[in-house]
Amino acid sequence: MYKNWDLPTPPFWLALIPILVTGVSLGFSVFMFDAEPHFSLFLGATAAGLCAYFYGYKWNTIKEGFRSAINRTIPSIIILLIIGMLISVWIASGIVPAMMFYGFEFLVEQWFLPLILLFSSFMALITGSSWSTVGTIGVAAMGVSQGLGIPPAITAGAVVSGSFFGDKISPMSDSTNLTPSVLGVNLYTHIKHMLYTTIPALIISLVVFTIIGFVMVSDGDTGDVALYTDSILENFNLSIWLFIPPILVIYMIVKKIPAIPSLIAGVLSGGIVFIVVQGGSFAAFMDTVYSGFVLESGNEETNALFSRGGIESMYNVVSLALISLAFGGIMDSTGMLHSIVLKMAGMVKTVGNLTLTVLGTSVFINIFGANQYLAVILPGQMFEECYRDKKLKLKNLTRTLEGGGTLTAPLIPWNSSAVFVYSALGISAMEYAPYAVLCWLTAIVVAIFGYAGITMHKLKSYEPEEKEDDL
């Protein structure tokens, strides 16, 4: 939260300068020239630092702003690098190809999209990680859909929808734990209250993907399934032992072993499978972990599908995360985000307007701060008193923060979540965002519930806030 007792909150016009610089630069670089967003966010961070400096902030204060923001997400960056290793090793060891092969064998073509949505949801719920799910189940799903002739953007939308839905209702998710902790709301109260809005969004998403599946794939129209299954059999040894690493990772996370050691176990066990089952060498394993797996078969499409992963593949995501965190950290620590949010707080006379304002603020910070954690923390702190004034339980606020902050993160092309999806699946947010139905639909459902007063639970006059754990 922004705190500075030496300087007043910067004026609104000053806070808008870095936003305008970033917005204009992003407009040219991303939307006109299809360039990477890194330099645009760097310009925004530079503009934020200069505005803060000329307003009176010392360099040490500005430096501490981006340093502390980056420090808070170091564990997430480490997880990101480990997932890069996991993707390459699980492909090289035959784990992902095996998932694809049996997916071709047992999945009913027309039901593939809704089934992969549910499967991704379940995996993210168990593991508490949308990124891990995208990097494993998502990669396999892309291969299956390619064989079925389903456009990759649609499949990516189903994977992203399921992965982030499961992440949101998982008690093992870091962001799901963070959101209620900011406002002192019980974790399971928060999760249960989210179900009122996420379940309708899930049901609608399932209907949409079912319709798309029946339209896109007809009986017997399996595209190039035979091509991919033959290629998998030619290049990988399939065995029951291939499923030990995924089962091990799931077991460790269910036992509440932290994500980093669980994912490391997945990498190491995958490496053992690579050497024992696929006949790979230790030197090849080491090279795969860093540079990614490269398949050299006679089919270019199969090569492109399976050649990915490695620590190296995550450098783009890591660099973007560092730059965006620097931008968001400077904006937060110097009070410029605080100034913008205060301006938006004037629209909160009704419960519906309050809900929409919180949603809009979270999305706004997600866009220009490129940080889903900041998009939850700052609006949560800013609008807490507004919810108390209206006698609303704070679980209403935490639910809104998730709908506007964390679920919209993968829809923003320069957000680290979206860049990770692109690195893992090869599909940009601009392509899959329209099909990530659950991610944007949840925010709409939350807004409707706010205006209609549906499940906007009131705090009774005799009920102390700390007992807010019942429905």
UniProtKB/TrEMBL annotation:
Highest taxon of the lineage: Bacteria
InterPro entries attached to this UniProt entry: Na/H_antiport_NhaC (IPR004770), Na/H_Antiport_NhaC-like_C (IPR018461), NhaC_Na-H+_Antiporter (IPR052180)
Keyword terms, alphabetized: Antiport, Cell membrane, Membrane, Transmembrane, Transmembrane helix, Transport
Entry annotated with the keyword Transport: yes
Occurrences of domain Na+/H+ antiporter NhaC-like C-terminal (ranges): 164-454
UniProt record similarity statement: Belongs to the NhaC Na(+)/H(+) (TC 2.A.35) antiporter family.
Pfam families associated with the record: Na_H_antiporter
Source organism (scientific name): Natronoflexus pectinivorans
Molecular function terms, GO-annotated: antiporter activity
Mode of membrane association: Multi-pass membrane protein
Protein known as: NhaC family Na+:H+ antiporter
The keyword Ribonucleoprotein appears for this protein: no
Any one GO CC term of the record: plasma membrane
Principal place of residence: membrane
